[in-house]
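Weekly structure sync - notes
Attendees: PM, LS, DV (DV joined late)
Agenda: review two folding runs queued last week.

Item 1: First target. Sequence and structure tokens pasted below for the record.
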Amino acid sequence: MNNLEHDRDVLRKLVERIAEIAALPVQEEKKRLWRALNGLKPERPMVTIDQVCWNEMNIEGKLDLACEDAECRAYEEKFRRILLQWDYFPVDMVVEPYIRVPMAIEPFNQDPLAVMNRIFGVVIKEQTLATDKANDVVSHNYENQFKTIEDVEKIQMPVIVHDQAETRRRMDRAAWLFDGILPLRQEGWFDHYLSVWDPIAMWMSVEGILYGIIDEPEMMHALVQRVVEGYMVMLDQLEEQGLIYAGENLIHTTGAWTDELPAPGFDPEKPRTQDVWMYAMAQALGTVSPDMYEEYEIEHLMPLFKRFGLVYYGCCDPLELKMDAVKRIPHVRKISISPWANREKMAEQIGSAYVASNKPNPAFLAGTVFNGDMVREDLERTLELCKRTGSPLEFAFKDISTVRYDPLRLKQVNDIAMKVVGS
């Protein structure tokens, strides 16, 4: 057996198990529950666990890779993570009955944050510091590259190129690897993440942004507008070339299933932005005033919000003082309740009109000793608040940079959370 045939044998064994799991009736039941929540008629709160420290999760060697070919290893890593999560901390995850094959779209063959910067032609200048060399979560010190309004011209308009021959090669390879087990789907642009301030923070630093708003407001407005224009140009090209993936199952780590998308007139050969979710956030503006937030974030991003079918908004930024502005976002459906937000004020303002996307504090998992009672009490407190306000609720455990090399903590969180939500 040659190396590629060996890799194929490894992958087919993994995919056969994934196919068995994907065929379980619980998968369709979970999709139904996600649709109910996203339609603002929840049957119970939903739970996800995502963005985990995979370098600490290798339980009994289940994440050890056996493939040698780089393309096969990428599939293997993905499949082994799916299987480990299903076995230990599935909460409300759904295992789909197909395999997504990434299309060869430049510059999207990169890590999402790297993509965001390659799109605009600005090279990040930074120093990093790691506390754990096996973990890709590191500290960043960014150099400010935007100090005058002339610097705004550094931002280039995106050019999206689809290498059709490479996409065909990937599909042919996947067909050979997985033929007869699960169907394939071409995966176009699927990470519908359009934050303006995250890339700017990497070009300027957060400190540079805040000083820039004070000292160079004309430059900052021009900078934000340039990024928005770039995103619009990018989206136009993706639509024109039929490169948008419309089969979302996640939006910002939470279930994306909905009866409201795709929009009327949907053409599966050419999905549009109005057929899919987007998500955005302005974490760098967490400390600015509500008026300034509306001026620099909401007003500028309106053209982006308007063209998408549904919007997930917010992340780690506390939004309780800015909800009047957030509610102006067209098509907003899910609103993040950060670990650092005032949950009472957020629940009151979210009411029954949006999904309250609560982010439990990842620090619960990072302590020297894991305290399950603290997790349970925190979830119960949020659940009670949302019951009082009639707010559809989801719990999204994310940004889990460490579990102190005790991966079974996530199994404990799984069990606690599912008991709290009544599953």
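Item 2: Second target, run right after the first with the same settings.
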Amino acid sequence: MKKKSLVTLMFAWLLLFVMAQTGHAASGSTSIYLDGKALALPENGQVQNVNGNVMIPIRVVAEELGFDVNYEKKTRTVTIKQSGTTLILVINQTTASVNGSEVKLPVAPKLAQDTTLVPMRFVGEQMGLQVAWDNTAKAAYLTTPSSGSGSGNTGNAGSGNNTGNGNGTGTDGQQPGTVVPPADTSNLAKVTGIAFDNNSLMIAVDKNVTPNIFTMSGPERLVIDLPQAQFAEALAGGAPLDASKSGSIEVTEYPDVSKVRYALFSNNPSTVRIVLDLNHKVNYQLVNENDGLIFVNLNTDPSQGGGTSGGSGKKTVVLDAGHGGSDPGAISVTKKKEKDFNLAVVLKVKELLQNDPNINLVLTRESDTYPTLSDRVKIAENVKADIFISVHANSGSASASGVETYYTRAASLDLAKVMHKHLVQASGLADRKVRTQSLHVTRETTMPAVLLECGYLSNKNDDALLATDEYRSRVAQGIVDGIKEYLGLQ
């Protein structure tokens, strides 16, 4: 067993956040600049030119400006409120209501899946924004009256239907089509992972970040901004961000949240925004100890308002694939890496338990990443795990063979005995007994915690066995059987 030397947490279950286009979309990637700041657009929720009218995804702009936007699915009605002005638009209808008065629209609002596209000029002017469109750069410019432009010429923002002007006049004070250069990115924090589990949002970062968290209504949302931050090249699990640096996670097992959306919200200053789409108002607790993990916990007292909050009522099991990333763990006699065996077994356990109605399984890593030992402990503590199990393969003399189970605290002994019994049965290897040792993940956790050594990579026979899919499947099933016996779920 090798000591871990790890750096940060990467984990996420990422679904691409795509929204279908409607009408005649402007070709290629498009941009929206609000007071000179680029807004992040979903890959398929781009600005569109429909019959000479510029259409923008209203939620992107609304979340920046604080507009109250509500979409009524049954009637397909969009209501936008701000500073005493109420706009009511209906999908595919060319009439709208402005403070109760009927107004003709240049083009009807469109619905692209869950993205509502509205005519930029109409909405902008009704809400007091100056608007312009640069057809060459495929960029929309919106300027708030009090923002200034940095150059003192916000008055030339134009009318918003300058769709054919190749010279691009009428912007927010920047040269038309010129992308505002981002600030120096060398000192930005990188977001390396985002996940939602046990009714909590978990964000992994590689530097200290001070989040700004606030709520929005119509619909209900919880917004977390991470200033001076950007995404890592890829989030954990090998799942890429889309071209516009955005993504989402569908949430199905918790009553408070329907989706987690995230995007590079601004380039200058670089800001990552994460939005929880809520089913109702909730209470929340932000936990940020500047140790690489940020938690937003929704498991708060429902008596304080915000509907029924809390977890799913399942038993929470944290499963830890030892080592990973830059730390390979032990190296076998045939040059195989322990980290690969550990992860393969953990992913097989996940497959066996992911549909179990009584177990909420949380993984410390799902790919070749390297959470620190303290990160692994913190994950278990923050999700209030019932048990913690770390999976490893051992190394020693060439003659050493068999399986062992380690624990540190007396409260973990019963779990160790149950897990070891099933590990011996599943592996068919020699029983090297339950042992006590002061290991970080079994010592610093407060729930019952064990570390399983599933064979010796330094032994040629064990090494050959550990490399087979059949053996890994047997060990995974043994782990599942042990978990269920200990938790009384058989």
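Discussion on item 2: The mean pLDDT is 77.
Action: LS to circulate a short write-up before next sync.
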